[in-house]
Structures are given as structure tokens and as C-alpha cells.
Write a structure and sequence with these properties.
With 362 residues, the protein is α/β, with parallel strands linked by helices. It has helices at 12-24, 82-88, 101-116, 143-152, 174-177, 197-200, 206-215, 245-251, 253-257, 264-275, 279-291, 300-316, 324-330, 338-348; strands at 3-7, 31-36, 55-56, 59-60, 66-67, 73-74, 92-96, 120-126, 160-164, 184-187, 220-224, 229-233, 239-243, 321-322, 353-354, 357-359. A hairpin with a 5-residue loop joins strand 4 and strand 5.
């Protein structure tokens, strides 16, 4: 017996899927986590999601679905966290390839359902932007979630949509999501985070990091992303709610529009038309800007001085925590220097490490 969890947005949703499995299912059944290879520019300098042709070492599960084993490698200059995740998780990671639009993802899902005959299928989204209409001013990255929702809505199998950490992705506020959330399925605890504890120390996902921190009891306001977005950490942050897939589709205009797409280009065009933007365009623009910038070398004395200045300014705005990913960008460091920065800060001020976040309170 096998369970299938679809990580709606890829990245941190795949890590959260492992936490979900531990919390709801324990070790009773093996699990396949179907996820995008879509890491942001701190990890992958190539904009957009990776397809099967961007890796070596993938292994076939079905004609359209490929497993990402620990020995797989992204082809330079692309980067991916999936091989390392595969090495550290007991689950099978399978790749969502969005290059053939919603129809291609439907084909992948149908083949997996036929091949695995899963006990259950969960579509997991951390934050809740899968429930966006498409016109919200705070919406930043609807494409991946809308694509997986559009595909799941066409599969002839029971699929449960789960929203974990409502509001933690900073796209829709929890108050805006409240009326869309269904039954409370579970509230994550510190014990639930143990299976991914080591992963959270290196994985750059901010939303899943905040989800785990909230499960461990952290409360306050966490500043994230390159724009410094404030995210409240409340008693609602570690919760998981079920949402009806059809209701989500009726609300998500982009998901409805892309159900018949056969290419990623079509999905991008419809995102621009309906939402007014495409997140891959943002990544392309940012990647172009970064090409002309030389990252600052990590100088411990300078980094600690800049950190103190940032912390004082952040506290004045009511911020209590931030992520190491955000600090890496604040200090104009390259993504490869994130781990070095993290080790420097924890060794210098261990009392401020609210794992996996950083407390700005002294």
C-alpha cells in the first residue's frame, strides 16, 4: 500500500509533505511525493522549473514520471535541492514536469494512480495561495499551485486538498483565507517536525521553515523574501485544513483557464492575462540583474556589523524573526554562502537561533 502526496508548489511543499506524512500516517505506508524541481535563484540560477532533460540520473517510474534518486544531478548551470532531499528522506521523490502544461501533469498523475494504486492522494499547499482568485495585489507566485490544482481537478480519483500554515507564504493573509478553509485536519507539533529537523537546517524554503518554527512554538512577526515581507506567526500558523478541490477550482481563475494547456508557454501567457504577471518573468528579470552584480565576500566582522544594523531597524518595525535566506540577500551574499553565514551567526549568537529561524531580539 502506497500513499501519494502532491507538493502543489514544489520546493518547501515537498519538505512539508514529509512532515505531513509523519504526522498523519506515521511509518505505516511508503509514500511517493510528486513535486516540481523549482528552487528560487539562491539555489538555481536558471529561472523557472526544471524538467526531466535538466537532470542526469533520473529513474523511470512510469512512461511519463521519473524518480529523482539521491544520485541524480541537475545539469549545470541549473541547481536543485531534490537530490539532497532524496538522500535524506525515506520517501520516493517524483518529478512534476510542467513543460506539457496541465494536460501533461494530468497524464503524469493518471499514470501514477494506475501504477501505485495509492491508499490516499493529498494535494498539499503551504500558505494557501492555491486558493487565490488571481487578482489579489499580494499574490506573487500562483503558477505552480494553479497548475497542479488544474491537473488534480481532472484526475478520476479522490484527491484531498490540504492547506498547511495558512498565510505563511505571504501571498494571502490568514484573515482572507479564513472563510475558504474547511475542516481542521491537524495542528503540527514540535514532535511532527523531527523527521525534517536536519533538512530545515539547509533547505531554503521560508514558508515551510516558518511552519516548522510555529509548530515548535515560535510566535511573532517573521520578515522574509528579498522585499522584506512581514509574516505573522500565530496559533493558526501550524494548522492544516482540508479544502474541497472543486471549490478551490471555482475560486482559482488561473487554474480554470489552464486546464487544457499543453505547454508551459501557454500557462505563462494565461498567467500574464489573468493575474497581470508571470512569476517566471520576475525570475528572468532578477536573474538578469544579478548577472551584473558581484556578490559580497563573507567577512565575519562586516557581516556581524551589518546584521546588528538590520536587527535594530527590523525591531523598530515590530519584526521578531527572520530567515537565513532573507539575511543572505540582505547582506548581498551569494546563495552558496548561506550555510557559511548560518554557521557564523549560530556560533556567534546561539541564543538567537530559533531553529530554523533567526531571532532579531537581543
Amino acid at each position: 500500500m502506497t500513499r501519494l502526496i502532491v507538493a502543489a508548489g514544489g520546493g518547501g511543499d515537498a519538505v512539508a509533505a514529509a512532515m505531513l506524512h509523519a504526522a498523519l500516517y506515521g511509518d505505516e505506508d511508503p509514500t511517493v511525493i510528486l513535486t516540481y524541481a523549482w528552487d528560487r535563484l539562491l539555489v538555481d540560477p536558471v529561472p523557472g522549473p526544471r524538467g526531466t532533460d535538466d537532470f542526469t540520473g533520473l529513474e523511470p517510474l512510469t512512461p511519463a514520471v521519473w524518480k529523482v534518486p539521491a544520485g541524480a544531478r541537475p545539469i549545470a548551470p541549473a541547481g536543485s535541492t531534490l537530490p539532497r532531499l532524496a538522500a535524506e528522506l525515506p520517501h520516493t521523490l517524483a518529478l512534476i514536469d510542467p513543460r506539457h502544461g496541465a494536460e501533461g501533469v494530468v497524464r503524469q498523475l493518471e499514470e501514477l494512480v494506475t501504477h501505485l494504486r495509492p491508499t490516499s492522494i493529498d494535494l498539499l499547499d503551504v500558505g494557501g495561495d492555491v486558493l487565490a482568485r488571481g487578482d489579489e495585489p499580494t499574490l506573487k507566485s500562483p503558477l505552480a499551485d494553479s497548475l497542479t490544482l488544474a491537473a488534480c481537478g481532472q484526475v478520476n480519483a479522490p484527491i484531498r486538498l490540504l492547506v498547511a500554515g495558512p498565510g505563511l507564504d505571504g501571498e494571502l493573509a490568514h484573515d482572507d483565507l479564513r472563510n475558504q478553509l474547511g475542516t481542521l485536519v491537524h495542528t503540527f507539533t514540535a514532535e511532527d517536525t523531527e523527521p525534517i529537523s536536519a533538512i530545515l537546517e539547509w533547505h531554503p524554503s521560508e514558508a515551510t521553515g516558518m511552519l516548522a518554527a510555529a509548530a515548535r512554538g515560535v510566535r511573532g512577526t517573521c520578515e522574509v523574501r528579498d522585499a522584506g515581507l512581514p509574516i505573522p506567526l500565530t496559533d493558526e500558523s501550524p494548522t492544516i485544513h482540508e479544502v474541497d478541490v472543486d471549490e478551490a477550482l471555482s475560486r482559482n481563475e488561473l487554474a480554470r483557464a489552464i486546464v487544457s494547456t499543453t505547454t508551459l508557454d501557454e500557462v505563462e501567457a494565461l498567467s500574464r492575462e489573468i493575474c497581470g504577471f508571470c512569476e517566471i518573468d520576475y525570475e528572468r528579470s532578477k536573474a538578469f540583474r544579478l548577472q551584473g552584480q558581484k556578490p559580497t565576500m563573507l567577512d565575519p566582522e562586516s557581516a556581524l556589523r551589518q546584521l546588528a544594523e538590520f536587527e535594530a531597524e527590523a525591531r523598530s518595525r515590530g519584526v521578531t524573526h527572520t530567515t537565513f535566506r532573507h539575511l543572505t540577500e540582505i547582506l548581498n551574499l551569494d546563495g552558496s554562502q548561506r550555510d557559511d553565514l548560518r554557521r557564523l551567526l549560530i556560533s556567534s549568537r546561539p541564543e538567537q537561533h530559533a531553529a530554523p529561524l533567526w531571532s532579531v531580539n537581543q
